[in-house]
Amino acid sequence: QFKAAINAGLGGNYMLMKDIDMSELGTVNRAVITGNFVGTLDGNGYKIKNLTINSTATNSGLFGQTTGATIKNVILENTSVSSTADNVGTLIGESNASSVTNTASTNANVTTVGGGTVGTGGLIGYLNGGNVTSSYSSGNVSGVFYTGGLIGLVSGTGNVSYSYSSANVFSALGGMVVGGLFGGGDSGSVSYSYATGNVTAGSGGFAGGLVGESNMSIISSYATGNITGSSGDLGIGGIAGQSTGSITSSYSTGSVSGGSQIGGIAGQSTGSITSSYSTGNVSGTSQVGGIAGDSSNNVFYSYSTGNVSGNSEVGGLIGRAYNGNITSSYTTGSVSGSNNVGGFVGFNSGGTITSSSSSGKVTGSTNVGGFAGSHTGGSIDNTNFWNKDSSGQATSAGSAIGKTSAQFDAMTPVTSTWNSTDWDTTFENPVLKAIKNGNINMQTGAEATKNSCYALKDMGLNFGGELAISLDSISSAQSAISSIDKVMTYLSSKRSDIGVGINALSGRLDTNSTRKENFISSSGVLKDTDMAVESAKFTKQQILRNMGMSMLQQSKNMQTSSIQQLLGL
Q1: Could you tell me which residues come within 8 angstroms of residue 45 by beta carbon, excluding any fewer than 6 positions away?
Q2: What is the pLDDT, as a whole number, of residue 546?
Q3: Which has fewest Cβ within 10 Å: 159, 255, 376, 387?
Q4: Alpha-carbon distance 372 to 363, whole Å?
Q5: Residue 31 vs residues 85, 145, 366: alpha-carbon distances, Å
Q6: Residue 109's closest CA among 147, 64, 150, 139?
Q7: Can you tell me the mean pLDDT for 102-131?
Q8: The CA-based dihedral angle spanning residues 469, 471, 475, 478, taken in that order and rounded to the nearest 10 degrees
Q9: pTM score of the predicted model
Q10: Could you tell me which residues come within 8 angstroms of residue 335 by beta carbon, excluding any fewer than 6 positions away?
């Protein structure tokens, strides 16, 4: 009925009223909803279970294609989709300017082999514009081009927020693009989202813990899975394999390994990286760094603590700094390599580096420095410093200053200039306030101590984030307004859902009230009937008594008269 009804009315509004078991369809050879769906489906919290698709057609999933549609509150469970064509997902193959909210695909198994050349995702294959909010996926996803745990490819200013994936992601062939959340992002943004699955790339491709190839804005998001490439890969990163967009207030904790251009945040970065950090170990062959393997843009207020190893152009923070400004950043992990090895940067050929530091052990063969291995262009001035004792290196390329451990510890920390609105510096290494403890924390009174804390999981989300609100400056107030707007938009969307529930409950209460009134009325009728029966019984007894008394009196009279007659009276 579900399949027939929606295929017959692609513009209709639908709501599930019970779970649906798709196993009765057997294995289908294309999308369940084959036309272009433009209507609304509200899953109402019910599950669509056990769907199996084995397709050779473009656009495979529960919905093959949607345009301007609204899909919300849908839970897919135990879905398996295999295809040899483009755009493969469990929920939607190709989503155009549609809204997907509060949806999930659990224990998914998605595989694209052969000719699939666009998107393969745990939830959506190809997102072309539109929004995905408060949604997640789990399971395994394997594809041959753009492959992601949640979405294969995001394009056309598509926006994803408050969403996550725990799916493990694999590249079936070399030269592909894979990511823990999405394979590729041509434009748009991802915010307050994360991925925890492991990502495995084929030779010669891009791979990222969050996004494989990103030209989008990544904001307040993180990845914790391990990212594994091969010696032939170009661009493997804890957040993004290749990033031409911006990465802000984000972090990665998993290990990252591969060939060339390997970084804890971004493997190859031509976009900016701001207020971000990496704690996992990073290893590769060339251009390997704790934050970025190859960077040609700005890096501000960032740090890495993992160990970094490679062959050439290996640095604690940046492997090769080709261009851009790098400032107020630091690294503490050990660095090892062969050629062009530095505690902070392996090879600086055009970057301007200021107010930064390194303190990890540094080992290598040629062009090895406590702060920089080689410096052929740009600037490394004397506002930078490194720990000579812990690094084991007394010299460095550029003009950075070496300090003893005592001198290093006495220096004003790099983090002293970091924005307290973004960072909590009470820890040994600062943590980002925007994604900490899994809560939204909002100031709700005139005083800074007047706060209300809302757990995202209590709002139907499973997200490790915190939204901190500050009114200390005009810019922070504007940011606060934007953040509050996002929360209010979410709450408004939930309010309509709650309203539906309230209306349903009110209807049931009205029905029960009517039933109660009918029961009371019936009870009254029954009591009246009982009273009438008792009254009838009483009246009957009275009549019988009166009749008996009358008959006795008549009998007595008759007896008196008969005696008198006998006596002749």
Answers
A1: 73, 75
A2: 76
A3: 376
A4: 12
A5: 12, 20, 58
A6: 139
A7: 90
A8: 70
A9: 0.78
A10: 307, 308, 309, 314, 315, 316, 341, 342, 343, 346, 358, 360, 361, 362, 363, 364
pLDDT tens per residue across span 235-246? 999 999 999 999
What is the Cα–Cα distance from 375 to 393, expressed in whole angstroms? 16
> Residue 115: pLDDT above 50?
yes
The set of residues, in sequence order, having a beta carbon less than 8 Å from that of 342 and lying 6+ positions away, is 314, 315, 316, 335, 358, 362, 368, 369, 370, 371, 372, 373, 374, 396, 397
pLDDT more than 90, % of the chain = 67
Overall residue count recorded for the chain in this entry: 569
Average pLDDT, the chain: 86
Q: Are 113 and 141 in contact (CB under 8 A)?
A: no
CA torsion angle for 230, 236, 238, 244 (degrees, to 10)?
A: -170
Which amino acid is present at 159? N
**What's the mean pLDDT in 460-470?**
39
510: its two tokens: 């009205």
From CA 474, how far away is CA 419, in angstroms rounded?
14
| β pairing state of 431-432 and 423-424 | antiparallel
Which residue is listed with tokens 């695909």? 105
Average pLDDT rounded to a whole number, residues 195-200: 96
CB 381 within 8 A of CB 354: yes
CB 366 within 8 A of CB 374: no
- Map tokens 């107030």 to a residue: 477
